[in-house]
Amino acid sequence: MIRVLVADDEPMIRSGARAILASDPEIVVVAEAANGGEAIQLTRRYRPDVALLDIRMPGLDGLAAAEEIRREVPETSVVMLTTFGEEEYVVRALAAGTSGFLLKASDPRELLTGVRAVAAGAAYLAPRVARRVLAEVGAGQLARGITARERIAMLTEREREVLALLGAGLSNGEIGQRLFLAEGTVKSHVSAILTRLGVRNRVRAAILAYESGLVAPGA
Asked: Which terms are listed as keywords in the entry (predicted)?
């Protein structure tokens, strides 16, 4: 069962998200919050698998809440919920340790897909957000590519194999199937990769894999 916390200052958005998530028998909403501070408190209490946070809330916003949640409850993955025109927050959100980015105007099925992907240990970006991230990566690609290749050179051959599949969007279970490894072993490799690369989440590791040429564009 995937346990989810939903945080948004608009009751209608919270109710809509809860209804969509409730349509999947393997997902349960364990708590709802109206602001970032409440989201942090409820995450400490319930320790959900996924925290779905509105990026803009009164008081403590979703970005600040994400940073605190990832610091205090690292086992909880964070998915940001945003609207069109707020893609400029993507880079800061990724730096805060966010594993997913969804648009409120997306198809409801995308919410289910994103939550399930992040809960499985993968990363998920809505297509429009993914295009923004790739655009950010593309600017200054040559210089960053050299740096990225130097950083990835520090990894073992097995870690590079895991990183390549992680960069292609596979979950820990899918990587394990490809490499004939137990899911727990893959999780250990991913943790080691993040530590050695000095990044906070899978999305940043995937970007490094892309910048270094380990993963081809569109993989």
From this structure: DNA-binding, Phosphoprotein, Transcription, Transcription regulation
CATH 3.40.50.300 fits 2-134, yes or no: no
The pLDDT tens digits of the residues spanning 50-103 come to 999 998 888 888 888 998 998 899 999 999 988 755 556 776 777 777 888 888
The C-alpha atoms of residue 110 and residue 127 are separated, in whole angstroms, by: 10
Q: Which pair of structure tokens corresponds to residue 87? A: 């893609």
State the pairing for strand pair 27-33/2-7.
Answer: parallel
Comparing CA positions, the residue from 112, 114, 104, 115 lying closest to residue 24 is 112
Residue type at 212? S
Domain 140-212, second-level architecture:
Orthogonal Bundle (1.10)
Domain regions of the chain by residue span: 2-134, 140-212
- Residue among 17, 8, 15, 66 nearest 35 (CA): 8
pLDDT in tens, 166-177: 988 888 999 999
CB of 40 closer than 8 Å to CB of 7: no
Tell me how crowded residue 71 is: count the other CB atoms within 10 A of its CB.
12
